[in-house]
Structures are given as structure tokens and as C-alpha cells.
Amino acid sequence: MSSTWLKRAAWTLVLGVVLIAAGWLAWPQPVAVDLATVARGPMEVTVDDDGKTEVRHVYTVSAPIAGKVLRISHPPGDHAVSVHVGDVVTANESVVALMQPTTPSFIDVRSREEAQAAVAAADASIKYAESEVHRLEAAVAYYRTELGRAQSLSRTQVISAQALDKAKFDVETNEAALASAKAEVERWQEVRRSLAARLIDPASMATLPADPVCCVQIRSPVTGRVLKIVQESEAVVRAGTPLIEVGDPLDLDIVADLLSSDAVQISAGAPVVIDGWGGTPIRGRVTRVDPAGFLKVSALGIEEQRVHVTIDFVDPAELWSRLGHDYRVVVHVTVWNADDALTLPIGALFRSGGSWAVFAVREGRARVAPIEVRHRNSRVAEVVSGLSAGDSVILHPSDRIANGVRIMERQSH
Q: CA 64, CA 242: separation in Å to the nearest integer?
């Protein structure tokens, strides 16, 4: 009998252990979560976006006339100017570009025949005018001889004073006609030169003598540095074509194109932190918010209304002198700040019934706590009501977290 009771007791003990283990396994276990503490401290709300630096006053040097601009970035020579990006230029002294006349265009067959006929007609007119010169030179010589005879005879009173005056008149009128004929020769020679110039084409340019003073020198309008060479290679350009950009790289400001919904929160004088440029953060200040926006298409193809916001540097130039024209930066414009705000990480927030709520930790269990939030930034939110400093809240609650669920803090490794 004793052995039977011992077997029964052993099986009863084993069954009890199994039941206890099954109950322990079936009992809900605490969910491991990450916790954060509601605390007081400084907080600020910023508008963050990309911006770019720009020289305030960029001077674009343009071609004053139509012509051929010589290559700008070129080894120095007789008819070349060597200017590179970053070179220092002086106002009204530094030559930044040289221009030459353009090469004549090609002539079609009919125009060439007409021009050649006009040159031949000019040659004939020159010959005719030269023959008139020769005739009048002979007439002048004859009348000058006659005048000499008349003067000799007048001294002995052989001829009358009227005959002497007639001889003087003939000399003067023929001399005037000779001068007119010589001027006519010169006129037709110039006319021929003008008509012959119409026959010049690109093929005949190589035979023309080079003019060492044919170039127009374009000088820098301001003292500064070359920021950009727009027309680097030799080319034929029209008047007003941009050639080069000049400015002072230390006269910088920043322009950021912010969303119009963010720009309405910003006012002139707002503090700015500038980073993302490869150096230490720099302090700045908003100087202007444009009153008009513009449409900009984002990289994802979304149409956005943007507004130009201009920012000046507050820190001395030694801290940002390595920045140049059109450098990328990231701006953080402060739109609100407080020295003592009740904050919690935004990763604890979720929507509940149209308002904000968190899972607060109460006696080891998660409890839904509706709260009122006023300001938020990318890291924390300002709590107006519903929590107190020192309360613990659950970060990034999963779908396993519900009201009343037992929780435990996840141990960091």
C-alpha cells in the first residue's frame, strides 16, 4: 500500500508542476518598451531648408558691340587676354575681354557680279577724271604763260588793263577747275575703295594686312574677383551678350527659397543658424522676406509655392570666408523659442480621437493620457497640459501596446 501511495503522490507532484508551468507560460508577460521622461528646458522651433550663398552685387560684363570676342582664358599674347575664375580685377583698369571685327559673310554670285561691275564703272570714272586733270593742267600752264606775257606788255602799256584782267581771270578759273578735277579723282578713288570692299569675303581675309590696333578692350567695371566666365571660347557675339561676371566674394549673403506656409511665420531680424556647408555652424539674421512668391517644382515633381528669404551673416568674416558664390548651405530660422518649456520627444505622440495622446507609465502599466501640444520641432514637442515634469512616456509605441498593458523598460546593450 505504501508504494502505491508514493506513486500517486509523485504523479500528483508532476501534474502540479506541469499545471503551474502552463499557467506561468499562459500568463501575459510585460512588453519591453523604450521610455522617455517629460522634462523642462529650453526649446526652439525652426524652419529648416536648403539655401545658397550669393554675392550681393554681381556685375555682368557684356559685349558693348557686335563682333568677335577672343578667347578669355588664354595664354597672354599680342591679341589675347588671360583671365581665370578667381582672378583679382581692378575697376576701369583690368582688361577682361578683347573684341575684334567680325569676318565678312560670303557673297552670292549675282551680288559679286554687281559689285565687280560697280568697281569697273568706278575705274572708268577715275580715268575720265584723271584725263580732265591732265587737260586742265595743260590749260593752266598755257594761261599762266599768257598771264606772264600780258604782265610784261602791260608794263610798257602795249595792252589795256582789261586784257591783263582777262588773263588773270583765265588763270584763276582754270586753276579752280584743276582743283575740282583733282578732288573728283580722289572722290572716285574712295568710291572704288568702298565698292571693292564689298568683294571681301572670308577667303580673301588671309591676304589682308593685320591691324595691330583693331581690338576693343573691355575693362572691369568694379574691383573684385572673377566669379564666372560666361563666354570662354572665341566666338562671334551680338551686342549685350554676357561675357564675364565680377563681384566681391566677401560681400556675401544667403538666399533660401522657403515654403510660403513657413515664410509667413518668419519676420525680419529672426535669428538663423547656418550649417551643412562643411564647417562649424554660423550665426545669421533674416534681413528680408520677399512679399511675392513663385512656383517651383520639387525633385519629386510637386508644385510648391516658394518665397525668397534673404539672410545676412552675424559672425565675423573669418568664420565663413571659405564660402564663395553659389555655395550650398542649410539654414535653420528660429520662429519661436522658450527658456523653460515642458517638453517630450515627438516619438511618443500619437493621434487619439482627433487630439494628441501618449502612453504614460502608471504603476508598471501603459495608460493613455490625452495631452495638449502647442509647439513642435523635429525632436520635441511642448506640452501645455496632461503631463507633468518627471512623468515617463513610451517612445514609438507598437500595436502591442494598449491601455492597461503591463510594460517593462527595454534594457540597452
A: 10
Contact call for residues 366 and 392 (beta carbons, < 8 A): no
Report the C-alpha gap between 403 and 206 in whole angstroms: 94
Q: How far is CA 332 from CA 251, 284, 296, 345, in A?
A: 21, 9, 20, 19
Contact criterion met (CB below 8 Å) for 242 and 60: yes
User: How much of the chain exceeds pLDDT 90, in percent?
Assistant: 48
> Which CB contacts under 8 angstroms, 24+ apart, belong to 202-206?
202/103, 202/104, 202/105, 202/106, 205/103, 205/104
Which residue from 101, 118, 100, 98 is spatially nearest to 110, judged by alpha carbons?
118
Cβ proximity of 237 and 102 under 8 Å: no
User: How would you classify the pairing of strands 407-409 and 31-37?
Assistant: parallel
Please report where in the chains the cell 566677401 appears, as a residue. 250
- Please report the beta strands in 186-238, taking only residues with DSSP state E, as ranges in sequence order: 216-219, 224-229, 235-237
What is the distance between the alpha carbons of residues 266 and 257, in angstroms, rounded to a whole number? Answer: 13
**pLDDT of 212 higher than 50:** no
Q: Which amino acid is at 400?
A: R
* Average pLDDT value for residue range 27-45: 86
70-107 confidence digits (pLDDT tens): 888 655 554 567 788 889 999 999 889 988 888 788 88
Instruction: Check if the beta carbon of residue 410 is closer than 8 Å to that of residue 32.
Output: yes
Which tens digit of pLDDT belongs to each residue from 311-353?
Answer: 999 999 999 989 989 999 999 999 999 999 999 999 999 998 8
Q: Which residues pair with 274 in a beta bridge?
A: 282, 331
Q: How many Cβ atoms sit within 10 Å of the Cβ of residue 135?
A: 14
Rounded to whole angstroms, what are the CA distances from 413 to 190, 268, 397, 410?
Answer: 99, 48, 20, 9
| H-assigned helices in 198-301 | 260-263
- pTM of the entire predicted model: 0.67
How far apart CA 287 and CA 183 sit, in angstroms, is 71
The answer to whether 57 and 228 are in contact (CB under 8 A) is no
Strands 224-229 and 242-247, bridge-based pairing: antiparallel
Tell me the three cell numbers of residue 242: 554676357
**Taking the chain, what is the end-to-end CA distance rounded to the nearest angstrom?**
58
